[in-house]
Amino acid sequence: MGLIKEPLDVDFVVDPRPLTKAEEKAISDFIRADKEKRKLKELKKKATTKRKVKQPA
Length: 57
Hints:
- This protein is mostly helical.
- It contains one helix and no strands.
- 54% of the residues lie in helices and 0% in strands.
- It is elongated and about 65 Å long.
């Protein structure tokens, strides 16, 4: 992650606040689902690469 460069004529104000339990759960659920999706995608990729076998000439 890098720094965000602000435009010269715009000020970004960040007001940190604690997350509610519902927000924490929503974020956790999203992260869990994304990890599962990536894992399945990688497994499918590995499965397709293993199937490709060179036929003898």
